[in-house]
Design a protein that fits this description.
The protein is built from two helices and no strands. The protein has 71 residues and is an all-alpha fold. The chain starts with 42 loop residues before the first helix and ends in a 5-residue tail after the last helix.
């Protein structure tokens, strides 16, 4: 089968219905495949790791760590 794909994201409503608005003219035959993505269990850890690095990005820390060895 050949054809064009239109990708869109939607949320199932409380009654189990899904409504999609497409740029297709009325009467166009389509095939609908519903894909339910897995939960991303690492997204909160990635966000925490990224925000924790902001602590080290300050001029006082840079001055201490980049200073020549006083020996």
């Amino acid at each position: 089968m050949t054809g064009n794909a239109i990708r869109t994201a939607a949320t199932v409503g409380p009654d189990g219905r899904l409504q999609l608005d497409t740029p297709l003219p009325p009467g166009t035959p389509v095939e609908v495949i519903v894909f339910v993505p897995d939960a991303d269990d690492l997204s909160d850890l990635v966000a925490a790791a990224g925000s924790a690095t902001e602590f080290w990005d300050n001029p006082l820390d840079d001055e201490d760590w980049n200073a020549p060895d006083p020996r």
